[in-house]
Amino acid sequence: MSIVKNTVWLALVLLVQWGLLQDLPLTVYGNPYLYLWFFLWLPFGVTRIGLYAIAFGVGSVMDAFEQSGGAHTLACLTLVTVKPWVENALIGYRKSDDNEGVSHLALAPYLTTSAVLVLLHHMVLFTAENYGFGNPRLLFVRILISSLITLILLAITHALFSKKYAA
Questions:
Q1: What is the pTM of this model?
Q2: Distance between CA atoms of residues 15 and 17, nearest Å
Q3: Domain boundaries in the chain?
Q4: Over 90: is that where the pLDDT of 90 sits?
């Protein structure tokens, strides 16, 4: 997988995130974060340092646009830290030279893996944005609604771009 191809995909995902999805009036509590698809799309063979660099860059861009004080960077770094463990636990061990990612799975294992990673990302993101657990009910509602909306978008994106469903 080439760096240019990954960079183009990342730019497109961030443009869709900011051009179409950011601040949609879906609900006061829910905001879809489609940029998480990029992390799921990355192949299993990406090095840990590469994953951390990508997560730091993407999180920093999101923080700059959303002015969230590092919450997205923290959530993205947490996501890529646990991503290999979650993948190994839910879909089995993959070789480090494997050029496929979670996006090459069938819908059920893809959604299971995505749900765990999205919930973790959103828990870290919204806890950091809210500066803790001051209002746990609102925090829980934000995590739940945003996770559901994000998972629906990820399922649609998976159906559109996965090689499993290509004609």
A1: 0.86
A2: 5
A3: 3-22+30-161
A4: no
Give me the phi and psi of 127, to 5 degrees please. -65, -40
Q: What are phi and psi of 28, to 5 degrees?
A: -65, -30
Which tokens in the block code for residue 109?
A: 């294992």
Question: How far does Cα 95 stand from its chain's mean position?
Answer: 22
Residue 147 and residue 155: Cα distance in Å, rounded? 12
In this prediction, residue 167 carries a pLDDT of 43
Rounded CA gap, 61 and 84, in Å? 23
Question: Is the predicted pLDDT of residue 119 greater than 90, yes or no?
Answer: yes
Which of 73, 76, 94 has its CA nearest to residue 85?
Answer: 94
Residue by residue, DSSP assigns 7-74 as HHHHHHHHHHIIIIITT-TT-SS----TTHHHHHHS-TT--HHHHHHHHHHHHHHHHHHHT-TTHHHH
